[in-house]
DNA sequence: GATTGACTCGTACAACGTACGATGCGATTT
DNA sequence: AAATCGCATCGTACGTTGTACGAGTCAATC
């Protein structure tokens, strides 16, 4: 009887944390586990980017055979899913009371979100393809709770949550994309040099060059919040 | 002397349109060309998604050998770049004068942008990884021109353009992601069913279920524009 | 001691991107 | 007319990838 379908039963990632330690090769490596796999996958992704994650390489880093991974994981996609969600954990606002300063709470959470993703740029390119993990859902839940407490009407809650989510995702993806490739940008400029007179406004605004990304992010967020919850 | 580096010289896509027709096999297939390759790639992407685009399959559809593609294109990545940009062409507002109704002009362009991408959902997942093509730049240029005309200060232009871009990208990617997978969503619900009490707000807002995406998009855009260019 | 179930891994395979070099063909040159 | 050249096509082959399959190990249970 093969192990087929035993460990990683069912479809989709198992969003779990608790598991039995139960190490059995006490000599060197601390035995395989989803946690270790995910942690190492994140390391590898940080070091080599999305294309650098290969099952064999991941197994090597873990001191295991390639096929051993498949006991804990259905396929490579699931590794991506788990790695992505693991990076998006939110530890909550520092000390501020969210009820009192809802605006601060939102800002903190969303800026932390953005920072988390920019700290692992591969996550931005992964996000569009992947499912909602529990950490993402937690953030959305928190967002909804704060907005609701801030006075957003029930009927508008959906639109408000999505608007903020959209904005954060968009800003992060854009930033991660251009951050990864400062020379790509230069190359683009080069490549389009002879067309540059077609884009005078972009040229004038130096849109592609010097940018206060963080400031722009905050400002746009401010506008959005002003619209969602008018200052009294 | 091999053809190596002859046709697709240099690095990066050639953002060109004009080319000599010059068909030489007059019998059946109208000869290979970048235009034909890109058009067929888009077809294939529409039909099979990002993972469905393989060089061999693309060549088959074109009635050509796989390696023939490489005369016109450096590698598969370039096919993605070209396909993405080709989908993002903007034909301009219908009849409205952009100077008079700048708000309408912006809305039209951005909604068209979003619609273009949703019409080819693969484009949303491709965008984070790819470079700026001329069609994207044109849209940004137009956006900047309109905003500038609407009274946005030179110093704020950058932030304003990026805010809108971010919002559109984020909204589109989110929507495309969830649209692709209505059953993924159901599966996610299922998978997280036992955790559902952890997300009461999401539950209550039915965030994952019924959504007026278009309405939410417009509303958020309104808020953003109100912030960027206060109504007098 | 036999059985079971959790876990590991060596081998093998099919599919993929694409390097390489041969080939064909029209236009240009001699 | 013959030779040359540049554009374009494609058959073959290689290296790399994800992963199916089944054999193997070991601890716990009966």
TrEMBL record, chains A, B:
Signal peptide range in chain numbering: none
InterPro entries for this protein: Homeodomain-like_sf, HTH-type_TetR-like_transc_reg, HTH_TetR, Repressor_TetR_C, Tet_transcr_reg_TetR, Tet_transcr_reg_TetR-rel_C_sf
DNA-binding span(s): 54-73
Composition bias, Gly residues: 1-10
Region annotated Disordered, chain positions: 1-23
Keywords, in A-Z order: DNA-binding, Repressor, Transcription, Transcription regulation
Positions of the HTH tetR-type domain: 31-91
Residues in coiled coil: none
Function according to Swiss-Prot or TrEMBL: TetR is the repressor of the tetracycline resistance element; its N-terminal region forms a helix-turn-helix structure and binds DNA. Binding of tetracycline to TetR reduces the repressor affinity for the tetracycline resistance gene (tetA) promoter operator sites.
Protein name (database record): TetR/AcrR family transcriptional regulator C-terminal domain-containing protein
Organism encoding this protein: Rhizobium croatiense
């Amino acid at each position: 009887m093969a192990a087929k379908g035993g460990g990683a039963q069912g479809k989709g990632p198992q969003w779990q944390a608790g598991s039995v330690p139960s190490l059995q090769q006490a000599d060197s490596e601390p035995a395989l586990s989803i946690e270790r796999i995910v942690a190492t996958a994140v390391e590898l992704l940080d070091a080599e980017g999305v294309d650098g994650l290969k099952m064999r390489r991941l197994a090597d880093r873990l001191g295991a055979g390639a096929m051993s991974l498949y006991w804990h994981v259905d396929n490579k996609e699931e590794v991506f899913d788990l790695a992505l969600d693991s990076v998006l954990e939110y530890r909550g606002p520092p000390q501020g009371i969210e009820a009192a300063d809802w605006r601060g709470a939102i800002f903190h959470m969303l800026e932390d979100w953005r920072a988390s993703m920019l700290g692992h740029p591969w996550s931005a390119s992964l996000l569009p393809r992947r499912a909602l993990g529990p950490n993402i859902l937690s953030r959305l839940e928190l967002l909804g709770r704060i907005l609701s407490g801030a006075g957003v009407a029930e009927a508008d809650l959906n639109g408000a949550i999505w608007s903020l989510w959209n904005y954060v995702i968009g800003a992060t993806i854009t930033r991660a994309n251009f951050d990864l490739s400062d020379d790509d940008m230069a190359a683009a400029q080069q490549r389009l040099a002879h067309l540059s007179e077609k884009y005078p406004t972009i040229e004038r605004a130096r849109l592609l060059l010097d940018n206060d990304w963080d400031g722009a992010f905050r400002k746009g967020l401010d506008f959005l919040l002003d619209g969602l919850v008018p200052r009294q």
